[in-house]
Amino acid sequence: MEDKQVKVASPLTNIIRARLSTDNLQVQWQVLGEYADISKMRCRRIYAKPGKKLDLALFCDSGRIYVLDAWCSHMGGPLFDGQIEDYNGSCHVMCPWHAYMFDLKTGKNEIGLKQKVYPVKVENGIVSVLYQHELGLHPFL
Ligand code: FES
Known about the structure:
3-stranded antiparallel beta sheet; Sol_Rieske_ferrdox_dom; Rieske Iron-sulfur Protein; Rieske_2Fe-2S; iron-sulfur; binds FE2/S2 (inorganic) cluster; 37% strand; globular; single chain; mainly beta; 5-stranded antiparallel beta sheet; metal ion binding; 2Fe-2S
């Protein structure tokens, strides 16, 4: 299988890196697993080792993987239980609680809410996310 590399958008990446680095935590590529497995699910929760508040939501559409904060910036709905929709010509997730739409590339929505978006890479068939905490596909014990 040919490796797919999700190119990191530089301005957004720089903003995210700057924001994360202020936490005095080391941001690094956190391995999630094999692309062949991960890309089978359209939406899924990604667990962060420190706990629920830092979990992420992963979305896969047309072979591309997007990772955003798990909890909706409106009132905390679980975005990983949302639906991927084509909206205004780009790929969005619809929050299951109040149906606000968030662009998967930018994390923005029409009324000014915003989800953090995290860089994703696929290298040698392995998906990794640039994040400051260890991540897993299952809850940490
Ligand atoms: S909690 Fe997501 S739209 Fe309200």
